Amino acid sequence: MKNLIALSAYIGLGLACAPALAALQPVSEAPLSSRTDVQCAFNEDASRDCVTTISYTILKPAGRDMLSRIDFNYPENDRFVVEQASYSQPGEAAVALDPSRIDTRTAPNPDAGFRRDKQTSLAFPSLRVGTTIQYTIRHHVDAMPLVNGFHYMLEFAPEPVRSDAYSARFTAPRTIVWQAELADDFQIALSPDTRTLTIEQKAPRYFNFINEADNAYLQKIPRIALASSMDAASHLGPFAQRYNEILAAPLPPRSQQAALHARSLPMRERVAYLMQHIDENYRYLGDWRSTERGYVPFSLEEIEQHGYGDCKDLAVLLAAMLKASGIAAEPALVFRGISAPALLIPGPLAPNHAIVRAQVDGQAWWLDPTNSVFVPGRTMPDLQERWALVMDAGGAIRQETIALEPPVSSVTVRRDEQYDHEGRARIQSTTSIAALALAQMSLADRGQGGTSFNNELCRNVGREPVDCAVTRDELGFTVPPAYEAKVALTDLNPLDKVSGQYVYQRDDLRIMWEQFANYVREGQQADIYLGDPYTAVYDVSISLGHTADSLHDCAVQSPWFDLDLKNASAGAIARYHYTLTQKKRVLTHQEIRSDAFQDLVRQARDCVGQLRLPVTLPKS
């Protein structure tokens, strides 16, 4: 993964996307049913051989599309065989799939990498409602480099398939240990000699969501992990040893020169300089053509010669440069994403990303050199609140926790609106931006150019903007601690007209609370991802043409959000200060449905609902 930075909305503070009556999908609407049998044997060399038989029955027309083509991707060094494939119509005998409908070729390369994977595809003919297809595949999976034991993960995410049966049997030449989460739907049994583990689904199950918000997801799903050991050192110790061997090598010339230059800088600036050096001289690109490297980086010399690398390559290079500059730095393995699943077993399949833990001015900085933007001293939101497996200089593995970052003042808007006799507004807006909100702007500038984001600013400041002028400095890789963007425009339609009266209202400040109120009413089930904790402030002046007697102070505090609305009006000029602090990255389903959270929603709706003010236009 690269550049996953989800942030609070810079304009409008609308954090949730509106669903349409979200709910668990009823089993009667399932487009497919399945029956699955898995037989896996772990081998002494840490490879495995698995035989999987799956049958699908099409229950709805949508199921035809889902089975239109079935693809299997696997490294070219693996052995993959379709042992049998057949299909049958209701009441008819099974027909073997013609070999011409089984195709194997080189799989497409990922967007940022080279692979030599193979792809085998099955294309079944005559698919219609009631058709059943079945196939058996045999797959030999080579061991990951430096892996001595085995580690296997089963995850049962929501999907539009009714699972009528699921069984799995795993055998190993040594003891199997296992851990599970939310696995009550499965019977898990370990043989007396601890070398065979069986998993049996207790009853048919269907678990799929419909119409959830775009930022909805599940922090927890049914998972089962099995391995040869519960000890991180037994799984990851060889990686730590190899990383230390790479780090002990001399830095190549360009990296050495950068590290020597950085030594003269204060610590924070030193880190920023080296992060920027990697961004300017290396690009994110994985190269797995010669071998499936797993978590093994290229050597420092190879990385410099390539001018690119994936997460483990760039992380080990950054760690080496930081150490050479006088900063303690260690590679770390994490799960990067909205949230990290609980660490059931600290094996090689648990993390998905490599970063660096650096000790900067007495604090731990978690650095990700694959990002295209850097906020000094702040962990990116896709790395907060999770475990990290840190490799120390002695080859030991220790588990640490990357904390949730506290809210920071990310956005402060000072805005003045003056209306003319036709209801148009001349708007002057100055926005102070910092931290992750500024990182988002920097990424937009980098990806689409400054003009594109300036146009977005204009659209967010005015409903129908014309004559928009944006004044702001160019942004770079390292975001500054403070930044201002000024917008001046004419809005042709700033006010609503209700029963012949012009009305000023802030729908953008109400929408989040309305959506949280809808969450319970519409039966939403998932957790909601909010993004980085932040504080946003609006200081707004508008020319009402009369006294703002309906605007009153109000404040709401909670474990999730704090908001404060203060009336500073004077005569015909309405002025208010609105402050919102978001304290969490994620709201769980249980939290949103709680009485305390719904009380917060009701109070917040009442508070911001005051920002619906009648306006008397000046005479022509």
SSE blueprint:
Elements: E1 23-24, E2 32-42, E3 48-58, H1 61-66, E4 70-75, E5 79-88, E6 95-96, E7 102-106, E8 113-114, E9 117-122, E10 132-141, E11 151-155, E12 161-171, E13 177-181, E14 186-190, E15 196-201, E16 209-210, E17 216-217, E18 223-227, H2 232-248, H3 253-262, H4 267-281, E19 283-284, E20 286-287, H5 300-306, E21 308-309, H6 311-324, E22 329-334, E23 353-360, E24 363-367, E25 386-391, E26 397-402, E27 408-419, E28 425-433, H7 435-448, H8 450-461, E29 465-472, E30 483-491, E31 496-498, E32 501-505, H9 507-521, E33 527-529, E34 534-543, E35 554-557, E36 561-567, E37 573-582, E38 586-587, H10 589-593, H11 595-608, E39 612-615
Parallel strand pairs: 2-12, 8-20, 19-21, 27-34
Antiparallel strand pairs: 1-16, 2-3, 3-10, 4-9, 5-6, 5-10, 7-9, 11-18, 12-15, 13-18, 14-15, 17-33, 22-23, 22-25, 23-24, 25-26, 27-28, 28-30, 29-30, 31-32, 32-39, 33-38, 34-37, 35-36, 36-37
Helix pairs in contact: 2-6, 3-6, 4-6, 7-8, 9-11
Notes on the protein architecture:
The structure is a single chain. By secondary structure, the chain is of the alpha+beta class. The chain is built from eleven helices and 39 strands. It has an eight-stranded mixed beta sheet with strand order 6-5-10-3-2-12-15-14. Strands 29-30-28-27-34-37-36-35 form an eight-stranded mixed beta sheet. The protein is globular and about 85 Å long. Mean pLDDT is 92; it is low at 1-22.
Question: Which features would summarize this protein structure in a list?
Answer:
single chain; 620 residues; alpha+beta; Immunoglobulin-like; C8orf32 fold; 3 domains; eight-stranded mixed β-sheet; 11 helices; 39 strands; globular
